[in-house]
Design a protein that fits this description.
7 helices, single chain, about 70% helix, mainly alpha
Length: about 160
């Protein structure tokens, strides 16, 4: 039994490497802005958590995420004396989606990191769209302006 070896022509290798370089060149500015936003907001949120500057909402959402991770309905001791049903208050799908992460790493700061990552993701998407329309330089400017705008800062540092 013989095995046929197919050699890829050199032109295809060159095309593939140029595609990879082009993709990297197109995504790198937006990814850089997004990574910076994510790292800065994660650092600020965890610093606020460690200096006890977070509000009670974070504790309520942490209880809900913990109970979703255990497969239970979300209830809170902080909202009422007798286990307040949080589905009666309002349903937060992101809390239910965060439950598998919480199960892997059962700490309240996972919610803060997740929030920072999601803000970074929106920064990437907006910066990428601006890059496609306006070019790399303006895409970075739009990404930085959005990532560090007052409203985005308020969102990212509101302890979930």
């Amino acid at each position: 039994m013989s095995v046929a070896v197919v050699e890829v022509p050199p032109a295809s290798r060159t095309e593939n490497s140029s595609r990879v370089r082009r993709l990297f060149r197109d995504l790198a500015p937006s990814a850089g802005v997004s990574t910076a936003v994510t790292v800065i907001y994660t650092a600020l949120a965890t610093a606020r958590f460690h200096t006890m500057q977070c509000g009670v909402d974070l504790a309520i959402f942490a209880q809900a995420t913990q109970q979703y991770a255990r497969g239970e309905l979300p209830r809170s001791d902080l909202k009422a004396v007798d286990q307040f049903n949080l589905l009666g208050d309002h349903f937060s799908p992101i809390i239910a989606l965060a439950a598998p992460l919480y199960r892997l790493c059962p700490h309240v700061w996972i919610l803060l990191v997740l929030q920072s990552v999601l803000v970074g993701l929106t920064t990437f998407l907006l910066s990428r769209a601006a890059t496609a329309l306006l070019g790399n330089s303006w895409g970075v400017v739009v990404g930085v302006l959005y990532g560090f705008a007052w409203g985005t800062q308020a969102l990212a540092l509101y302890e979930f």
